[in-house]
Sequence to fold (164 residues):
Amino acid sequence: MSADKPIEDPGRWRAAAGFTLLEVMIAIGIMATILVILFGTYSAAVDRAARARDLSQVYHEARVLLQLMVNDLRSAYVPEPTQQAQQALQQGKTEPQGKTGPITFLREDRTQANNPADKLAFSTVLPTQRPDVPDPEMCHVTYSIEPVNEPSQGGALFRRGIAV
Fold:
């Protein structure tokens, strides 16, 4: 061996550990693609969950309002005694209630800006809320459909009660 001749070892570069720059760039590209797909899926799921939550809230409010209407109609005050109503049915009286006696239910069929704006008014007996108030309270209830701010959205159902 002489000192001016370098020793070549062909296995020296093959034994070195690590990745090339090209391999690292390909791995980063694959990871970025996977992360973009995962983020898109996650954001779509969050949007669907928010829409479902909003729709569920609308259905809940509708159920509460309809249950309130059911309770009001169940306890509607009919001023005519039951016996007189049964006798009228047996005698075959078919006159409208407003001509012969007090009006029990009043319906008004209206439209505003080509949207329905109907009303239903009747008297009802409110349930006793407190035990120290033995007499039930009479209330005149009106349900109405009224337009909202934007005509394209239709109308909203309102309940108004006035103690009698």
In short: Helices lie at 21-74, 82-91, 97-100. The CA atoms of residues 67 and 73 lie 10 Å apart. The chain has one domain: 21-163.
